[in-house]
Amino acid sequence: MMDSDIALTDLHGEDRVYDRGDGNLRRRFRQPSVTQREFTLPPADQGKDAWLFLAGCFMVEALIWGFPFSFGVFQEYYTTHEPFSPRPSGIAVIGTSSTGIMYLSCPVLFAAFKRWPHVRRHCTLVGLAINTVAIITASFATQVSHLILTQGVLYAVGGVMIYCPTILFLDEWFIRRKGLAFGMMWAGTGVSGVVLPFIMSALLTRFGFRTTLRAYAVALMVLALPLLYFIRPRLPLAQTSLQRRLDLSFLRTSAFWIPQSANVAQGLGYFIPSIYLPTYATSQGMTGTEGTVMLALVNMGVVFGAIWVGALTDRMHVSSVMALCSLGAVLAVFLFWGLAVSLPMLCLFSLLYGLTAGGFSATYTGIVQLVKEQDTAADTGMIFGFLAVGRGIGALASGPLSEALLHMQTWKGEAKLGYGTGYGLLIVFTGITAAAGGTSFIARRMGLK
C-alpha cells in the first residue's frame, strides 16, 4: 500500500478501504462470496471538482477572514468618531479578539468533528448565520464593550465554525500539492484585505459604521451561502466516521513544540502593523486614504506571500522556510518602518511585510508533515488546531499589549524617524517577534529535533 493510501476497517471488521488519491476507492471484503467492489472518487490534486472546491475555499476565506484583517480601517474610525471616541480604550481588542478566538477555538472544533464528522457541513451553515447576526448586532453598539462582544467574540464563534471544516476537507482534496493548496486558500484573506479596506473606508466616511456593518452582513450572506455548496468532503463519511479516538501524543514531541514556540512568538507582533498602520499614517499628517492604501498593500503582500511560502514548503524543510519569512519581515520592520515616515517608504514596508510575515502561517502544512514523521498516529486536524492556538495566543495578547506599548510613548521626540514618533516601541517589538519566528531554524542547526 502506498504512503498516500488510506486504510480503514468498518465496525464489524468486514472490509477495508483504500484511497490512492487518484479517484479510485477500492473496498475489499473479507467474505468469500464477494471479492471486490469499486467506488469512484473525484481525483485528488486535479480535476474540476478539486479546483472548484479550492475556489470555494478561497472565496469563503476572503469573506470570513478578510473582515477582521481589515479592522485597521474600523480602528481609525472608532477612535475618531462618536460614540466610541470619548472612551477609545479597548478598541484594538475588537480586532484581535475576533482573530484570536477563531484561532484558539480550532482544537475544540477539530476534536468535535473527529467525534461527530457528520456535522461538519452543517456547521458551516450555522457559522454563516452566526457571523451575519454578529455583524448586524454590532451595528447597534453604543460602547466599545458591545463591539468586543459582537464584532469580536460572536463573529469569531461563527467564523471558526466555517473555517475548521474547510481545513479538514482541504486535507482530503489535496495530497501532493497540499502546501500550495493551503497557500492559495489563505491568499483569499489577502485579496479581500486589498479590496475591503477601500470599500469599508468609503462606506464609513459616507454612511457611518451602523450602515456599513449592516451592508456587509447582507453581502456576506448573499455571497457566501452559494459558495458553501462547494465546501464539501472528498472522502465518503464511512471512511472517517470510525476515527474517533483522540490522540494528542504529538504534544510531547519536539517536532511540534520547537516550531510552535516560534509560531507563538511571531504571532505576538504579527498583527500590530495591520491594526495600527492607518492610525500611524493619520498621526504623521497623512490622509485616511493613504492609511488605507498601506493596509491594502500589507494584504496584497499576503496574497503572494501565502502562495510562494506554501509552494516552498512543498519543496524545502519547513524550518528553512520559516527562517526566510522571519528574515524578510525583520528587514522590512527595522529598515522600512523604523527609518521612514514618508508615504513611499511606508508603502514599501507594507508590501514587503505582507509578503514575508504574511506568508508565515502557510508553513503549517510543513509543520504537520514534520510532526507526523515523529508521530505517525497524529491527527492532521488536531495539529492544525494547536498551531492555530499558538497564533491565537499572539493575536489576543497583541491587542492589550500593543495599547500598553503605545501608551508609554517611548523615545517620542528623542529618536529619529519612525522610532521617534511615539510608535517606536511598537516597531521594535514587532521586529523582535518577527526575528523569533526563525528560531526553529537555529534549533535544527543545533541538532534539536
Structure in words:
This protein has 449 residues and is mostly helical. It is built from 16 helices and four strands. The chain has a four-stranded antiparallel beta sheet with strand order 1-2-3-4, with no helix packed on it. Helix 5 (144-173) packs antiparallel against helix 14 and helix 11 packs antiparallel against helix 12. The protein starts with 6 loop residues before the first strand and ends with a helix. The model is unreliable at 1-18 and 22-38 (pLDDT under 50).
Topology of this structure?
Elements: E1 7-9, E2 15-19, E3 24-29, E4 37-40, H1 47-69, H2 71-80, H3 91-115, H4 120-138, H5 144-173, H6 178-227, H7 237-240, H8 254-270, H9 272-283, H10 288-313, H11 318-337, H12 343-356, H13 364-374, H14 380-408, H15 424-436, H16 439-445
Antiparallel strand pairs: 1-2, 2-3, 3-4
Helix pairs in contact: 1-5, 1-6, 2-3, 2-6, 2-9, 3-5, 3-14, 4-5, 4-6, 5-14, 6-10, 8-13, 8-14, 8-15, 9-10, 10-12, 11-12, 11-15, 11-16, 13-14
